[in-house]
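Example record used in the benchmark description.
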Amino acid sequence: MSEQQSPTDDLTEELTAAIEENPEAFATFVRNLDTVNELVEVADLGTSAMDDEMIAELARTGSSLGELADSAADGNTRSGIQVLLRALGEADANGPVDRHDVWDGIRSGDFLLGVRYALSIVRSLGRVARN
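Model output (structure tokens):
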């Protein structure tokens, strides 16, 4: 009649084999075990400290982030944000303007297009804010 090994005996054999195969990795694991235990304790403290209101607030925040992600996923919104970010980067690279730049800019097609774009944003902002 053969005797079955207990799960603990199997685990002990596997652990012994792993230590013998790679003692450096096991030593690193043991050194990092304290850090892992500390992280688990911090997480446990954090979840214990949370009350129902905190959880409800986290749920509201998650919902708001989801709505923001939905808006950002719209192709027109994404394209508009990319245009604004590129323009901000270019403006930062060029530095501040002086009165001569303003005068030259007024006669520039880029300046007028930028003003029309800004007015379009302001008009849309007003429409969205009203709704």
